[in-house]
Every structure is written in structure tokens, then in C-alpha cells.
Amino acid sequence: MQDKPLTIQSDRTMLLDVHSPDAQACRSDIIAFSDLVKSPEHVHTYALSQLSLWNAVSSGISGDEIIRRLGKWSRYDVDERVLFFIKDQCSRYGDFIMTEYDEESILLTVRRPVFSLQLKAEKSLVKYLTPREDGSFLIDRMNRGTVKALMIKLGFPVDDRIPLTGGMPLEIRLRDTFTPRPYQMDALGAFLGDGGPGSGFGTVVLPCGSGKTILGILAAAKLGKRTLILCPNVTAVHQWIRELITRTYLTENEVGEYSGERKEIKPVTVCTYQIVTWRPDKEGPYPRFSLFKEGGWGFIIYDEVHMLPAPVFRVTAELQAIHRLGLTATLIREDGREDEVFSLVGPKRYDTPWSELASSGYIATAYCHEIRLQFSEEDEIKYALASKGSKYRIAAENPAKVEAAKRIIEAHPDDSILIIGQYLTQLELFRNEFGYPIITGTTPNRKREELYEAFRKKEIHVLIVSKVANSAIDLPDASVAIQISGTFGSRQEEAQRLGRILRPKDHDSHFYTLITEYTEEETFAQNRQKFLSEQGYSYTIEKGY
Questions:
Q1: What is the fold, at CATH topology level, of the domain defined by 358-543?
Q2: Would you place residue 345 in the very low, low, confident or very high pLDDT band (cuts 50, 70, 90)?
Q3: Gap between the Cα atoms of 104 and 204, Å rounded
């Protein structure tokens, strides 16, 4: 009994002893129905939640099977309250089933009569539902996703069994110049499932630098459909296009860019969230949403799905008949809309610990350092007298960070270094002090590409970047990041910034965060510290530098 690797606690967290010889087999069994919460050196923590259990049942894993797996690996008897929670939540998935009805409508079957009464009384839903005598409801096809999103907010997950439509076919052949990694193939299999109803849509969580773009290309090739790819910025658009041309036999005539610079619609089209959510005035319609409906798409990829804007949630609600894949390094959304990702894009199909990929050499080993700095006497007084709303920024822009960054750069003469910050005035100060080039939101896309390419070729040793570099830039040789300011301890941002230095390389990476001690910045930094430690990263704290 004591040799079993899993301890299940009454609060529904599960502790996995990673030093157990059965740890890997246990992890493979439980990841399908639990969320990885933290993965430091010795014990990884997983949690059972409504969403994690609904994820599992939607993938074909029953409550009885979940309990069987827990019994197989648990070091102690599982608390009855945990067993009840599993049975109760798993039983709820299947209370509401969507199936085909006719060309205009779909059928929502309700397993328990009392739930029919609840739906009829729910003001947010009533306008979308047409009651039938048997307690079921008819729903207009265009409201399929909207109803699913509203119902999950009520704790009513919908089992959507309507087959996905084919979309227009497109042959996408892979070149034999690369070999997919084992975890990429595992993620692909988890996403595609058996090809039947309930499969072919969902979200995959993989760390930055682990090849999420490759996974998307593998899925597109397997499905063989016209494909629309949505990205957070133009740099990511160009990265996807490069990878598509490099990894497949698609030609430049078959891969289009739909951005502020170009408006091409081709069999595979890559666009930004920003361009499709543009509208002439803030109360008007979104004229470019026609892109979603008129391209004959059979597959949509949402890159960095944790950044999915609210308007795209709305249009995604109308795209429930299409294969769709969300890619992200973290499903953490600071707005708490993870349940909408579940309903509209699809459930989490695959997740893996960052530390596991690092130990296998698939991403770089990174060391995190927090450098705590003091104010000058003058700035200390300025901070003390400032309003509450101003204190964080004053601490973030501590001039002492310039000298600290200089010393870090001197300590890494052979590394490619990113200086990342939140405030443009601070970034300009660093450019004036050091003379390094800078990329911000106002930098033209052509200039950005030139600087990124010069950085890749090591013509530039240090690059200063604003939050535009938080996601989806491919700088494989970046091995040191110096974070001089950030967004109030955002875990999502921390994951993305760390990801900039996680591409595999032949030496370790280092992530430095500069903090003004005894200030609000130090308080917010604790969120970041906790998050990084929970991902299994070495984290040191040093005073002065």
C-alpha cells in the first residue's frame, strides 16, 4: 500500500510522488480527468474539478473508470466525499444531449423532468429554447454554441453529439524532413479521438517552446480540410506561414495572410484576432466575421486560446459544426472564462508537466532569479507620498533596475538576451542607456521582423521588447530574459514570458525578474514566484545585484 504513488485528499487534490517507479504510469491514468496544479521537484499536485471531470466524460471515460483508476494508484482509501463528487459530476454530463433534428433546428434532450422546468424558468435561456411536450427543446442551429455557453454557467454541461461537418477537402502532405515528438503524437491522438461524435474539437495545453505549431500542422494534415488559423499578432501569423511552407508541401499560393498588411483568403489562411474583431465603431457589427463563415473551413485553430477575445467567443458559438483546436501554454484566463473555452472551443484533451519535457530535453532547463533592489532615498520618499494607484508603477520604474540589468548582461556575454517590460517610458530609458533596439506596439511589422531576424542571426545580442513579446514569437536562441516590469503578478503573463527562453538548446536558460523590495511590486511578485515554483522551476531570491 505504501508503495503506491498517489495520495488523494478530501479537498479533491491529489499528490503524486514523482520518485515512485509507478509515477509515470499513474500520471498517464489521472491526467485525463484532473488538472495539473503544480509540479515542483518532489510531489506534483493534481485537482479534481467539475470541468476536469466533464472533460473526462466527454472523452469517453466514465465515473466508474475514474474511481477504478484512483483505487489502483491511491496509497490510502479514497474519502467518500471525493467519491460522491466524482459520481455526482460525472452523472451530470449526459443530462443534456444535443442531437440532429432538421436543417434549421437541433434537439436538446433533457434526461430529468425537473431540469426542463429549470430551463424554462431561466431568463438567460428562454429566448433560445422552444419547449416540446416531452420535455425536450428545439434550438435554432445558429444558437447551438450560445446555449452551451449559457448552460455551463449554470452548471449544466451539454453533451453535443451532433457530427461535425466535413468542410471543403484539402490535401496537406507532410514533408519527411522532421519527426514529430512522442508527446505531440499523443496530443494529436487525444484531440482526434475515434473520429466519431464528440471528438475532433478541444484544447491542448503544452509549454511554450514545445512545438504547439507543429501539433496544429499535424492535425491539419490528418484532417485534410481547408484551415483557418487565428493568432494573437502578425509575428505569429508569419511564424505559422513559415512553418506551414517548411513542414508541408503546401505552396505560397495555398497559404494566405489575412492581416492589416494583406487580405488574402486561401485554402489555408492565417489571421490575427485583432483584424477579425475590427469594426468601424464600437457599437457596430464586425464586418470581417464573414471570414469565418465564407471560407469553406473544415478546421479552425485558435493559437494562444487563453487570449481569445470576447467577440471571437461569440462568433465561435456559431461554428460548432467545424473541427476546432485550441492551443495554449496555460488555460489560466485572468477573466475566469475557462468554462467558455470548454463549451465553445472544446474540452482539454491533453496536458503535460513542463518539468517533464525539460528533463527529456524537449524544452530548455530554465533557472528563475528574483533580484530585489532598493530605492534611492529620493525615490523612497516619492513612493511613500504617492497615491495608492501610483505606487506600483513607481516601484516598477525604479531607476536602480538599469544598473542591475547592466550587470546581468555583463554576466551573460555569450547569450541572446531579451529585456521585457510593461511601461514604454521605462523601455525608452533602457534604450537610451544601452543603445539596444526596441520593439513596442507601435513598431511597424516590417521593422519587427527585421529585428527578430537580426536577433536570430546573432547580429543583435540584446533586444528590448514590450508586452508584444508576451506570446507567439519564435526566437529559438533567446536564453536569458530580464523582466523589468509586468502586469500585477499575472500568472498568464509569467508563463508566456518564460516561454520566450524555453526553446531547446545546448545550455541552460535564465529568467531574471527585477523587483523593488518593500513595495507593492514585491507583493505582486509573490504570485509569479508561486506560479514558477509550482511549475517545477528553480527559483532563487537575491538582494541587490
A1: Rossmann fold (3.40.50)
A2: confident
A3: 32
